[in-house]
């Protein structure tokens, strides 16, 4: 995997990123369509803290970070981090995480935060990467 590059996401990457987003989250039991994935990616694309992993110019993973102001200062909120199944276990997710942390340090952010589902396979990996549960619980109410 030495030929994997991590680079800033460009607007021209959005369609391919949306397909990967849809594929990966649907593997975890979610119900995204290519259309809803594209809408999500486009709505959350600010370019600042968004990176893709590429092998031979093909996108194989991505991370989307959004600046978030909190009481302790501004943090990067990771909206999504995905790696195609066939590339997992090869350090690509770690490279993407490291890239966003490097970016956050350079830009003087206070930290990196994200939501994770404990039932997803990735949850154990986040703990292995030394991310800690914050104690906050996500709440949701469906609008009827």
UniProtKB/TrEMBL annotation:
Pfam families per record: Acetyltransf_1 (PF00583)
Residues covered by the N-acetyltransferase domain: 4-144
Annotated TM spans: none
One GO molecular-function entry: acyltransferase activity, transferring groups other than amino-acyl groups
Protein name: N-acetyltransferase domain-containing protein
Organism classification: Bacteria, Candidatus Dojkabacteria
